[in-house]
């Protein structure tokens, strides 16, 4: 499994194998809320794949990783970047050069505390006493990970558009949409955690779109009364997970009828030690 390119709020790096185990066979794969792309990077390559996000910084990073010459420039710049508090703080300054913009996003993500460090100053990770490796050692190894990520992104369409528009453009009976929107506000702590938040009305509009799609849909989220109303007849699968600060949560997947119908050995995936299938 490829390591994630960023530490990202709501990222699914640890959950990716479990999520992918519930994916039905598909020809086209769409991630309309791509974020750090952890699930995309971890899954087997499909015939056609689409990554989308509204965050211009992360989309710029993915464009750089797909551009010959630019990816190599980024890798070299990261090798020359010290793990330093001054670098971390300077990375929040705006920048017009795409390669430097991508480098600064990676610096913010990897040198800051918590998964929200790409978007807000959370403090420098100067921890030298951590067991199992330190942040500075992780940073020293980071550039060596890029070639594998660059190779995996070959052939991936990268978009920077509203999620509903992207899903509509690529929908079809053999399309799988993995939909991982910002968590419903009432299911998480206070504060603005995402660069682009969604209200309950936005989640309802998204559900209207998903019910109209011809393709297969898998939705990620926390359990909530809102989602019970929005997806009453979809299959729900859940498992325990940990959020920032080792807070235990219940992570859920909702599968539309098309996804359930095409998913092989669905019962096997539901009956695991980590998760419980909820009808």
TrEMBL record:
Keywords: Methyltransferase, S-adenosyl-L-methionine, Transferase
Gene Ontology molecular function: S-adenosyl-L-methionine binding; sequence-specific DNA binding; site-specific DNA-methyltransferase (adenine-specific) activity
Pfam family, one: MethyltransfD12
Source organism superkingdom: Bacteria
GO biological process: DNA restriction-modification system; methylation; mismatch repair
InterPro entries: MeTrfase_D12, SAM-dependent_MTases_sf
PANTHER family per UniProt: DNA ADENINE METHYLASE, SITE-SPECIFIC DNA-METHYLTRANSFERASE (ADENINE-SPECIFIC)
Entry protein name: DNA adenine methylase
Organism encoding this protein: Rhodothalassium salexigens DSM 2132
